[in-house]
Amino acid sequence: MATPALDAHQAQPEHPTHRPGRAAAAGWREWAGLGVLVLAVVLLAVDATVLALAVPALTADLGATSTQVLWIGDIYSLALAGLLVTMGNVADRIGRKRLLLIGTAAFGLASLGAALSPSPEVLIGARLLLGVAGATLMPSTLSLIRSTFGVPRQRTLAIAIWSAGASGGAALGPLVGGALLEHFWWGSVFLINLPVVAVLLVAGAWLLPESRNPHPGPIDLRSVALSLVGLVAAVYAVKHLAHEGLDAVVVLSAGVGALGLVAFVRRQRRLAHPLIDVELFRRPAFSGAVAVNFASVLPLMGLLFFFSQYLQLARGSSPLQAGLQETPLMLSAVGAIAVIGLLLPRLGAGRTAAAGLVAASAGLVLLAVAEGASSYLWLALTLVPIGLGVGLSQTVAVDAVVSAVPSERAGAASSISETAYELAAALGIAVLGSLLGVVYRAGLDLPAGTDPAVAAAAGDSLAGARAAAGADGPAFEAAREAFVHAMQVTSLTAAVITAVAAVLAWRMIPARLSGAAH
Fold first, then answer.
1. Tens of each residue's pLDDT in the chain, 518 residues
2. Which of 216, 345, 473, 494 could be cross-linked to 299 through a Cys-Cys bond (beta carbons 3.0 to 4.6 Å apart)?
């Protein structure tokens, strides 16, 4: 049963492309506006992955402690995940275009502050502002697509292009970072955002239509606080688990997160104008799409995080070489745009998503085998089905989420999809990272007589083994073999998770996504 707000306004149009009856096809202006939205997504995706390569340089320049380095990396995703639900609702009320442009300007100012940070504390504050600004962009891009493209086939293609931007941007981050860091200082990974922000502001103001919920209810501040506490605590728990292992902080944070989220859901059931219509989860298409989104992102993001380390440490690639070697993943994700138009009419939405996830799972199995191969070519070939499969499944899952609600509630629905994405990314790094560490240490067999200091460093990580023993010593070779074996186990585990997601897609996502407002 939908909320009164949904019942009252489900059939009311809010944009010229949503006329009663047959929706009008999008023209050149709408497709050009899509380019602006994809550019915003690419900006956020690159920013989420580009920092990892700059950590050694900024640590040396700013004198950051290990704890400060963790907060520089984590504060962005904590703010982003915690505010997505709220910002999706704000966008529905004040206007998606307006919030997108405000957030873009704030993102540019925060990027400039991050690039010129004189201390770790200032950089942490700038990264916090980047996360807040990023939370305004993600739901706005998806909800503008939902309100602009009224024809289901065009909307699916638009979301496929949007998904390719998100997946491609995540893979593009290491390449951009590697290229910049070979010629400039660490602040360049933030400064590169400024020309992109300028293009977004000018082109967005000209091309994007405004859309909003024509009859919004008030934003419940207690719900905002509960969602913020619940989501931030939950994400912090999984991030702390990845960095420090299971301890009292993880248990306490997970408990606070669970209590906050339970209280949030219970409150939404009582409100006439909730931040999230929890009754949407009773629809198999909606709940299945969110589950598929979560289960497919979790292994991919965990793999992306550690694959770059594998290329640089185990295979000896430079940061730029590692970025180039990851491009097959990006290119194949972009290739999903062409393939989805062929598969959807023949297989339907659920089977298309399932087929993509089966391909990704098979690619992960092949990757586990190829990680021991001497030639990079075998690795490159395994990345193609992974990128293509995740691109297909993400497009269908996101389309199913935004199609399940009327367009005036697109921002709130989009925020649910993006929140699932952020939680899955954090959990993927935490769970698969913990598994990688456990298998690595269990399989580490150092030569007899290894110096205790070298053994301690090798037991901590492969990077520690290389720093302590050098890249040519027998201790590092033993650590490298243990790391490759751990990556193989992790890849196979990711393949199993992806296969489970394929079953969910097959069973829960229907063949046809008509959209709630059609």
1. 333 333 333 333 344 434 444 567 767 788 888 888 888 888 887 777 677 667 767 777 787 776 677 778 778 877 887 787 788 778 777 888 888 899 999 999 999 999 898 888 899 899 889 988 988 887 778 778 877 877 777 877 888 888 777 777 766 777 777 778 778 888 888 888 899 899 999 998 888 888 776 666 777 788 888 888 888 888 788 777 766 777 888 899 889 989 988 998 888 888 877 877 777 777 777 788 888 888 777 777 777 777 877 887 788 777 677 778 878 887 887 788 778 878 878 888 788 889 999 999 999 999 988 877 778 888 889 989 998 888 888 888 877 777 766 666 666 666 777 777 777 776 777 678 778 878 888 888 888 777 788 788 777 777 777 777 676 778 888 888 888 888 889 889 989 989 988 988 888 777 676 544 33
2. 494
Cβ contacts of 49 within 8 Å, gap of 6 or more: 169, 170, 171, 173, 174, 177, 304
Neighbour count for residue 118 (Cβ, 10 Å): 9
C-alpha 73/C-alpha 14 separation (Å) is 39
As given in the structure block, the two tokens for residue 108 are 């540019």
CA 115/CA 402 separation, integer angstroms = 35
pTM over 0.90: no
d(CA 265, CA 258): 11
Q: Are 290 and 153 in contact (CB under 8 A)?
A: no
- Whether residue 10 contacts residue 517, with contact meaning beta carbons closer than 8 Å, is answered with yes
Within 65-119, residue ranges assigned H as helices are 66-94, 96-115
Q: Which of 173, 174, 201, 177 is nearest to 188 (CA)?
A: 177
CA distances for 258 relative to 228, 283, 374, 429, angstroms: 12, 23, 46, 20
Give the Å distances, CA to CA, from 222 to 219, 256, 268, 275, 276: 9, 16, 10, 10, 13
Tokens linked to 206:
């000209």
Structure-token pair, residue 97: 């275009």
